[in-house]
Amino acid sequence: MENRCPQCNHTLPVHTEYVKWCDLCNWNLNPLQPDKPKNLWETFYETLGQSQSRRLFEKFKQAPSLEPRMSLPRLLAILFSLFIHIVTISFVVVGMTLLIRGWPNIFALFGAIVCLLIGWQLRPRFAKMPAILPRGEYPALYRFVDDIAHTLGAKPITGIIVDDQFNASIGTVTRHRKQILTLGLPLWSILTIEERAALIGHELGHSVNGDPARTFLVGTALDSLLRWYEFLHPALLWEPQRGLFALVELPINLLFLIMAQLPKLSLYMLAYLLYRDTQRAEYLADHKAAVVAGTRAALASLEKMYFEGTYQIVRNRVTAVRNTNRDFFQELAERMRQVPPHEVERIRRIQQLEGSRLYITHPPTPYRIDMLLHHPVDEARLVAAHYDAHQMDAELAAIRDDINQRFNSLSDYYLQKLKRRG
Question: How far, in Å, CA of 30 to CA of 260, rounded?
Fold first, then answer.
């Protein structure tokens, strides 16, 4: 089936379920809207990225090394984060002082309760330890990840989580800062063993790339400022009222809105101070991926991240039809083999777009590609071919079956929902 480009009248090949675009003038190359910022922090990063990402890229490209080092903005960010924690602690100190010295004065008691509640609300939060894969049941997978950590000089991870997303990430939980690696099995399933090594190398690279935003001091300070903003902003604090209540609420809302600007300004200041280091840290994480698996594998794994649209197509097909015997992963693999060259070319062109980026907090993808090519790593430190990908897949077979069952169950759920509507 063919069509005409409305912009240049060029003949367009049309592939069902894929974006219709023109390879001559790039019409409709990327019709999907980029993800919106999830919170105020990402909003600031999007703003900073529009003005500073190119300048930082050129600076890092010429730098002899991307390894972290102390700088004035980094030092100011650390001191400012320390100040934020001191403010939080001061509420607790004032509250305890009012409670002890002001007892039984009712006003002192009220002030103590308010201060202690604020201090409690702003305290550092720690995610609980999630259910992780037992090491004894997944020896090949853990050995693979541990060897990559050893190659990078990173601490061994505490555990691995495998989910049904087309993504991968690393984070810390509990007050002991345990590292948890999360792998999306759909993404994992379409990667070669070298690309898997690059993916893990990038994620583990975050633990050694010196990103101050991931440290306890700065990370919890950022979290406190976000909670301050959410706590004070009237639109996020309570539902708007009507009638007489609205008149009473108006001056209170105005007061809270004014106070909410202080944590907003503080958060923007901290984002500005950290921006250079966080962008450098992403480039360094990419370089760590290349160190582990080679530049070619690092670039290939980056390209595979852009096939989330294919993942969504297959997931929608599996969940839309009631058939409990459908294998999502088999269909995903088959779909990946059948992706039209026209679609592959579209993805590669999107990667080259100036503003293209996988995540708001990451540098633009063309800069990441250019940085990897500018500092190539020809010989990988880890010989990924020595690891048994089939054994890892066998270990993950039960999770694969569980995801298949979950996706097929969704088809039953949607069918029942349609019946109820009918």
Answer: 36
Q: Given CA atoms 330, 332, 334, 337 in this order, what sign does their dihedral have? A: negative
Measure the CA dihedral 334/335/336/338, to 10°. Answer: 90
The candidate with the shortest Cα–Cα distance to 305, out of 353, 367, 350, 354, is: 350
Extract long-range pairs of 137-141: CB within 8 Å, 24+ residues apart. 137/395, 138/392, 138/395, 138/396, 139/395, 140/387, 140/388, 140/391, 140/392, 140/395, 141/392, 141/395, 141/396
- Please tell me the pTM assigned to this model: 0.85
- Amino acid identity of 166? F
Domain assignment present for residue 12? The answer is yes
CA distance 321 to 220: 45
Q: 2 lies in a domain?
A: yes
What single string gives the DSSP state of each residue in 205-252? HTTTS--GGGSHHHHHHHHHHHHHHHHH-HHHHSPPP-THHHHHHHHH
- Take residue 53 and report the two structure tokens written for it: 């990402």
Q: Please, are residues 205 and 289 in contact by the beta-carbon 8 Å criterion?
A: yes
Which stretches of the chain drop beneath a pLDDT of 50? 1, 413-415, 417-422
Cis peptide before 104 (omega within 30 of 0): yes
335 within a domain of the structure (yes/no)? no
DSSP class per residue in 98-152: HHHHSTT-HHHHHHHHHHHHHHHHTS---PPP-----GGG-HHHHHHHHHHHHHH
Range of the domain at 1: 1-31
The full DSSP string for 40-81 is HHHHHHHHHHHHHHHHHHHHHHH-S-------HHHHHHHHHH
* Packing angle, helices 72-101 and 244-293, rounded to 10: 140
Q: What end-to-end distance do the CA atoms of the chain give, in Å? A: 35
Position 134 scores a pLDDT of: 96
Q: CA-to-CA distance for 12 and 69, rounded, in angstroms?
A: 51
Domain count, the chain: 1
Residues 15, 32: contact at Cβ < 8 Å?
no
Mean pLDDT of the chain: 86
Q: Looking at residue 324, what is its pLDDT? A: 62
Of the candidates 140, 286, 304, the residue with the CA atom closest to the CA atom of residue 201 = 286
Q: Say if 404 falls within a structural domain.
A: no
44 CB burial (10 A radius; 0-12, 13-18, 19+): buried
